[in-house]
């Protein structure tokens, strides 16, 4: 065992050691900072696509818990002794989620009156974990006992308990019970059977694992949040994405309907439910258990700046293109003003008081806000002007993020880019889903951008190896390496680019609509793709100031298939160099460090490398993963061999 460790270390070390072949010398001017790197430079973009929220990071295990899907019993199977023992009814009183079930038991025993919930492509159950069950109910008189079990595909119990609804009367009551699992299963179900005699109305039937993030009741899936926390992102953009726009305006995301008591948050169809006929998802809805309060809380938890995106009065232009007339736009603008108050307002304000009532009296310190998502055309510019005037009048320090459309280089983009710059827009959001070759050829995209004009947010990007915008793409090392090369250009141009995020973030391997994606999950597991490791390396090693790295007087942006950037971290007193070698040959180089009196004699070296078609998986989550070693620093020079198809991060203590 010890011998294997030594061999592995030797191989890792050789990745960064200089070899006796022809060398190229790169110059790094450590004492000539070019531009500051914003703390928000590398972040994450969250959208509820690919079952990223319900069935994903939101840890609820019961699908259609309040019977509000188009088909009220979707996700449920029922068994009854006679017709009418299970009825779907609606409340007479005003409520956002009116439906409930009325269950009538007549001397019921096991097998007479049953409900089974299939979960989101099954329920991932862990062994020896606490599970928290809750539901709302009302009954005229006690008389029913509910038996709860988690069962596997054979009907065998994985854990069980009993709950006896004790309250009676016309009012709704909530009751909870916890129980322990005795075995694991990735595709379990929740099985409920009733014993006794009586009539009981039930709603909001819920089940959460006991190991949610920060052990919050009704919270998020811990392993998925941990993947984000490990990246230490500078920001999190939410809630999308196209769900901000909706198929039509009735289907748009409305943040005020996602806060307050969970049982009062109004469910809507997720627009990805119907978007891809070849990836049908008729059971895809948004319960908003993960709402705007939880998004802000998540950002705070992982040390990221919140970046909410709001609808600007435009539905998705690929779907209905529905517009709110300009004269009717005031409620949309007011929603934006109210959101800033919800995030930052004192507890004496209307919306600050709502935030405090949810358990967070301190402000969330919102600094930026997105107006519209991927909208385009003159109609978008008209609405942006209305929003900008109103928001800047009341909150001049809030930075506004504006859309440059769906593509990085067409007529739409050129029009929006010109109009927004003429308005002195704070931040322009550029999106690019393109081939790996596009990313390589555009590493110098921002070299000529105006340093004093609007800043850039690379808000959604990913290299698509097969069909751009399709669903047949894989997260291979080819795509990740192309992104790593492109990102050297983003960092090198930090004077222009202030923010960047890969998209989409999560995908459920059993219920996805779009690929590629940064992180893949099933009901019990999670793994980061090669693209994830690239994003993480950039985020953990961003530095605070860009410094020049040149070869023969020019920035290294594709010459001899090499792409590089350099930064100084003033906090850790380190020089951080990132180099992508996208060629099939090893390349031997020397890094000459100028403008520094002294360095450590050894530098840390982190390498990602592999065959271009290599991927990670649940079976091999670390197939492409960082390998760490050290390399000597002599006379302020580093001899560095770059492996074929590799991305290297070098850290030199100053």
From TrEMBL:
Q: Could you say which residues form the signal peptide?
A: 1-22
Glycoprotein as a keyword of this entry, yes or no, is: yes
Q: What is its EC number?
A: 3.2.1.55
The EC class name is: hydrolase
According to its UniProt entry, one GO biological process term is: L-arabinose metabolic process
Question: Domain of life of the organism in this record?
Answer: Bacteria
Coiled-coil region? none
Q: Which GO terms describe its molecular function?
A: alpha-L-arabinofuranosidase activity
Residue ranges annotated for the Alpha-L-arabinofuranosidase C-terminal domain, each copy included: 459-646
Q: Which reaction does it catalyse?
A: Hydrolysis of terminal non-reducing alpha-L-arabinofuranoside residues in alpha-L-arabinosides
Query: What keywords is this UniProt entry annotated with?
Result: Glycoprotein, Hydrolase, Signal
Q: Which family does it belong to?
A: Belongs to the glycosyl hydrolase 51 family.
Instruction: Specify the protein name.
Output: non-reducing end alpha-L-arabinofuranosidase
Protein's organism: Filimonas zeae
């Amino acid at each position: 065992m010890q011998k294997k460790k030594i061999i592995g270390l030797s191989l890792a070390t050789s990745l960064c050691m200089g070899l006796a072949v022809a060398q190229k010398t790169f110059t790094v001017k450590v004492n000539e900072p070019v531009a500051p790197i914003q703390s928000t430079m590398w972040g994450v973009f969250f959208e509820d696509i690919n079952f990223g929220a319900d069935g994903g990071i939101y840890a609820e295990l019961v699908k259609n818990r309040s019977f509000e899907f188009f088909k009220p019993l979707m996700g449920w199977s029922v068994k009854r002794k006679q017709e009418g023992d299970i009825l779907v009814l609606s409340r007479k009183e005003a409520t956002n989620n009116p439906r409930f079930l009325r269950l009538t038991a007549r001397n019921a025993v096991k097998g007479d009156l049953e409900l089974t919930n299939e979960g989101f492509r099954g329920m991932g159950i862990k062994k020896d974990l606490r599970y928290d069950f809750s539901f709302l109910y009302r009954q005229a008189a006690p008389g029913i006992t509910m038996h709860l079990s988690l069962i596997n595909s054979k009907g065998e119990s994985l854990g069980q308990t009993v709950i006896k609804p004790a309250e009676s009367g016309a009012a709704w009551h909530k009751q909870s019970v916890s129980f322990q699992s005795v075995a694991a299963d990735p595709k379990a179900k929740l099985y409920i059977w009733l014993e006794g005699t009586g009539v009981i109305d039930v709603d909001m039937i819920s089940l959460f694992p006991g190991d949610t993030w920060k052990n919050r009741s009704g919270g998020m899936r811990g392993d998925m949040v941990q993947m984000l926390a490990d990246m230490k992102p500078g920001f999190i953009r939410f809630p999308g994405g196209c769900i901000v726009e909706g198929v039509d305006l009735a289907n748009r995301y409305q943040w005020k309907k996602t806060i307050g008591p969970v049982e009062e948050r109004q469910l809507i169809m997720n627009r990805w439910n119907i978007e891809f006929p070849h990836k049908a998802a008729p059971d895809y809805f948004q319960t908003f258990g993960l709402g705007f309060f939880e998004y802000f809380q998540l950002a705070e938890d992982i040390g990221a700046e919140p970046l909410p995106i709001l609808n600007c009065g435009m539905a998705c232009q690929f779907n209905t293109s529905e517009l709110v007339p300009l004269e009717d736009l005031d409620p949309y603008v007011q929603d934006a003003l109210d959101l800033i108050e919800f995030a930052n307002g004192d507890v004496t304000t209307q919306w600050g008081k709502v935030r405090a009532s949810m358990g967070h009296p301190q402000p969330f310190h919102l600094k930026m806000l997105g107006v519209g998502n991927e909208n385009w055309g003159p109609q978008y510019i008209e609405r942006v002007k209305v929003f900008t005037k109103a928001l800047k009048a009341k909150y001049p320090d809030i930075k506004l993020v504006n859309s440059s459309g769906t593509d990085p280089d067409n007529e739409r983009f050129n029009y929006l880019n010109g109009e927004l710059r003429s308005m002195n827009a704070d931040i322009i959001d550029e999106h690019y889903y393109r081939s790996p070759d596009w990313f390589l050829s555009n590493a110098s995209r921002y070299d000529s951008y105006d340093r004093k004009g609007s800043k850039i947010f690379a808000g959604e990007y990913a290299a698509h190896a097969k069909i751009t915008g399709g669903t047949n793409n894989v997260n291979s090392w080819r795509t990740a390496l192309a992104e790593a090369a492109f990102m050297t250009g983003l960092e090198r141009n930090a004077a222009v680019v202030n923010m960047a995020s890969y998209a989409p973030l999560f995908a459920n391997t059993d219920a996805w609509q779009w690929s590629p994606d940064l992180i893949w999950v099933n009901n019990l597991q999670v793994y980061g793709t090669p693209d994830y490791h690239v994003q993480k390396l950039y985020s953990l090693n961003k530095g605070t100031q860009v410094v020049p790295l040149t070869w023969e007087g020019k920035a290294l942006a594709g010459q001899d298939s090499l792409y590089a950037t350099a930064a100084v971290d003033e906090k850790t007193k380190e020089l951080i160099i990132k180099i992508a070698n996208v060629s099939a040959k090893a390349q031997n180089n020397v890094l000459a460090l100028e403008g520094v009196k002294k360095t450590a004699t050894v530098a840390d070296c982190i390498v990602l490398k592999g065959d271009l078609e290599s991927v990670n998986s649940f079976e091999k989550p670390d197939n492409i993963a960082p390998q760490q070693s050290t390399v000597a620093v002599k006379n302020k020079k580093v001899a560095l061999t770059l492996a074929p198809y590799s991305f290297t991060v070098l850290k030199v203590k100053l």
